[in-house]
Amino acid sequence: MKRDIILAGVGGQGILSIAAVIGMAAVESGLYLKQAEVHGMSQRGGAVQSHLRISDKPISSDLIPEGNCNMILSVEPMEALRYLPFLTSDGWVVTSCNTFRNIDGYPPEEALFDEIKKVKNHIIIDASEIAKELGSLKVSNMVMLGAASAQLGLSMEGLYDALGVLFGRKGDEVIQLNVSAMQAGKNAVGFD
Amino acid sequence: MSKLVLLGDEAIAQGALDAGISGVYAYPGTPSTEITEFIQRSSEARERGVHTDWSVNEKTAMEAALGMSYAGKRALACMKHVGLNVAADAFVNAGMTGVNGGLVVVVADDPSMHSSQNEQDSRFYGRFAMIPVLEPSNQQEAYDLTRYGFELSEKFSLPVMLRITTRLAHSRSAVEKSELLAENKLCLPSDPNQFILLPSLARKRYKLLLSTQEKLEKDGEKSGVNRMEKGADLNRGVIACGLAYNYYREVAEEAQMDYPVLKISQYPVSPRVLNDFIRKVEEVVVLEEGYPVLEESLTGVLKNNYTIRGRLDGTLPRDGELNPGLVRKAFGLQIEDTRPIPDIVKTRPPALCKGCSHIDMYNALNEALREYGPGRVFSDIGCYTLGAFPPYNAINSCVDMGASVTMAKGASDAGMHPSIAVIGDSTFTHSGMTGLLDTVVEETPVTIIISDNSTTGMTGGQKSHATNRLVEICRGIGVEQEHLRVMNPLRKHHEENTKIIADELAYKGVSVIIAQRECIQTARKSVKSKAKSQKS
After folding, report:
1. How near does any CA of chain B get to the CA of A192, in Å?
2. What was the pLDDT predicted at A11?
């Protein structure tokens, strides 16, 4: 079992929380993990990414080699495209359709979706809409994690447990909201 | 024992705690910040009474750590690579004094300059100070070598540098802990002259340091930190330093290469070990993160018959951090066709946050400067450096911590008026205060804007030693009361603030304007934690 995943987004959108949940679920199920993050200057509204590698064998490199990534999981559609050189030919792009516009010359939405659709295996989800229905825009990231869950090679129970441990201090209400967000994301894709 | 999932930085912190440190000393700096933050959050550190407060800069941190070592206890000092420039005087001379309690200096380099102004390689500093350098290749080694660093430090009575780079600092993996070592007891150095570097005594210390070098090389041969890994294909040998080892292993497994490998994580490296290795193979590829330090020592200036490949002969790029793709190319392997980044994707550089006080300060400054023209604003290191980008285009320099004040002085001395410095509160107490005294003593016409957001913002909101002290500090240094102005950088005060700046630009003496409003990020956090504490 081996999964190389790039998490993508804009600083402050919560991709490190997604990484933490997947990472903990992987380690708890006895897998090896390496997860490279971006801290510092880029976190100020810049493009951020995390290379997340899980495997049943020891992992050498903290960075995913180009052309080796099984999935780009993005919380922003333009950011999903930034890491295409890393994707394997049969890799997945799972992204929200919700644009984050803090730069001049941001491309038209339709052009972005056209590019994403050129990748055979793609999932585009309106994470904000689903999160809003659940009562908090903040859980959009967990909606996206739910949408990607079928491709992770990890059990849903494992992911929920990890979420419970990581968000434990925030109380049951917050945990339940995030679990619901993951379920809703999963249901939106329509996989079992 | 269950495994912990830790950043490289956190593995170092845990390793230092378990090695029995009594204190950590540091100034925040990406990518080293999380080491100290981890120890600050640790309940174990709190219970033990381990010192964890931030220092005002890297020099004071390094010196305090040396003082703790003098008193017999183990201390950790942490900084980013350019922070070592600030601490260099203390660092190099700590090699001369040696240590009493174990002293490990963690220096986090930033190849590719993700959050820095250069990519200097701290291993040079280690060699310069003639002390051992350890360079872990993964998170477990970061934990283990921190611990080994303290052992080595006490064995040879020398400070030990632990060198990491951004990629290891900010990458997570599982780490297994070892048993906890007890802290040292207070205990003075056995030689009362050890720390007195008067010339006559320093000459003795230097001879001692020189005579230790061979012992350090011998230790590196025996410690097992550096190791030879056999390979069947002797057409090449690979010398892999620190993190670069991982990239080789990744590529070698995929491409089924089987070259002998010399894995280096401890310096100085014994020349005997290097010679033995090189003689066994047809040519050598040196993989190292940062400068070609080891490669250069192998190639030298005299041509010999050995082929040494690496960053110097173009096998690898001379600059930037390594990655699996670059290492693939170095071994002549084909890169598979990959999808290009679509043309419509735009770069998304970091930017000042919406509502940031620096924005309103720059808007007022830009307006006040309109009549003088561009090119007069010396800035410094912090979030406000982002004022270099549109729409502000507000600054003309960013060199090193504190340089805004002194560069403005030099330009003023050259006849430029007005000459302006823009510096953050934490950067001002880090290295700006001494420069301010220079301007006060000479009554140099400069306008110094301290953009005071009451935190160390860029590194994530650490405590600023300047908070609530700036007016008194500036008065104490000798800034005149009527030219020490305080303003609130909010859009609604724009006209008033522009006038304050304009008035001080016209003044031919030292002016300090404190633009005071809390960082929008830390303000949000404190509102949240207040709401939480009211709830519970």
Report:
1. 30
2. 87
